[in-house]
Amino acid sequence: MSHVKAGGTAKNIHNNAGQRLGVKRFGGQKVKTGEVLVRQTGSTKLSGPGTFMSRDFTIHAAVDGIVGFEKIRKPRFSGKTEPRTQVCVR
How many H helices and E strands in the chain? Predict the structure, then answer.
């Protein structure tokens, strides 16, 4: 015999809105200072020249120019390098 009363089910608890992450301005597009280039969870893409990263890892344009994406090799703490994407504005 169970000694805990029936709790029922929770059906409407997983209906929250998405975070709208991703690349907002693509390579070759003109941008102005302060525009959002990439919204991301964690630092999956790195900020390069002409960009800066805010507290929530969003990459913004620091100068007016044209967006570019470059593949770079970033060293890890162990010394091993791994390929990463760097966002830059020139």
Answer: 0, 8
